[in-house]
Amino acid sequence: MTGVEARRSAIVAAVRQRGFVTIEALASQFAVTVQTIRRDLNELSAEGRLERYRGGGGLPSSVENIDYADRRITLSAEKTRIGRLAARHIPSHCSVFINIGTTPEAVARELMQHDDLSVITNNLNVAISLAEATEFRIVMAGGTVRNRDGAVLGQLTCDTLSQFRVDVAVIGTSGIDADGALLDYDIEEVRATQTILAQARRTFLVADHSKFTRRPMVQVGRLAQVDTFFTDRPPPPEIAALMQRHGVKLAVADAND
Question: To the nearest whole number, what is the mean pLDDT of the chain?
Fold first, then answer.
């Protein structure tokens, strides 16, 4: 671990302990300039490890996700690598669920070179991009469109998804707790993902490393329900041990993926 990363990890630990820490206090604690701390806080905020506030840093929100436009550009290279690696584990000539999220969307982009896929999704962005670029059979779940990110949600969405028994589900999540709980912000989005989990023969979880430190308040399910977890960094020891105990495979995308 580099000195910069060690300091940033210590900043996150300090924020978790105190809830909010000022820039001046952090600069004094680590004997660096306030400009250095501002850069650290900006990077940590971009990674979703804490929230950047005027004058300091605080805990990420448990009730509101980062704006979709910001999520699309945050850790975009890491998400692309995760998407590429996950897509390599999905064969042509099969059926695939793809749910809401920028990392599932990265998987969808990497599936465009596959042949003869049937894709069932409640993600309007996925449906449009695949319809424009492929000859796949695409089923768009009915429901209410969430304008800010193209999610399609509601009871009609769950009713549609529940009609299918699919080979592989690709799901994202907004947070992973140390006890293996998969967490998200919106109860309607969670219900759709729970339906997908119940109807898939295999489940691929795709999530970058920032999700290890985020704590949304709605539980989607458990890491034990996942067959393979695709991420860009090895998970914390407690999550790694839990995965081993439940037979969840780990696939870490490196710079070569």
Answer: 91
